[in-house]
Input
Amino acid sequence: MPLRSVVRPADTESPAAAASVDDCRLIELPRITDPRGNLTFVEGGVHLPFSIARAYYLYDVPGGAERGGHAHRALHQLLIAVAGSFEVVLDDGRRRRRVQLNRPYRGLLIGPMIWRELDGFSSGSVCLVLASQRYDEADYHRDYAAFVAEAG
Ligand code: TYD
Output
């Protein structure tokens, strides 16, 4: 999967267009390295192709646990392993791919209509998610069969 540090604007007008796991891309974030500790920052619309309406994070994930298991109808997200590592299975209803996140300066961009499952959390890992919209349960696809029917 190629790394891109320059982002293209997200197509937020047509979330129903056929999404592909190939559209989920890794974004390299700025790094200010310093002997006192490194620093990475993210600005909505600059380092990722949407404005940030919400941030949330997963932490204290027990070994062997799985998160995700859903898709979003319109939401765009950037997932970052700000500590430790985990894996993301991406599924567009036709194909699956698995991506490992293990650097705090690298984010995985996931657009609408991509089913995602998160697993393989290392001890002490933290998954930070930056999202384009506030929480809305109506935006979720939580039933895989219904998701595949709509995605296909
Ligand atoms: P969910 O998105 O299913 O978690 P994950 O994808 O990480 O497995 O959310 C789990 C619960 O948390 C669910 O009851 C909804 C709630 N929640 C909020 O209230 N606000 C939020 O921003 C998020 C992401 C979840």
DSSP finds one helix and eleven strands in the chain. The longest strand covers residues 77-83. Residues 54, 56, 58, 67-68, 70, 135 surround thymidine-5'-diphosphate (CB under 6 Å).
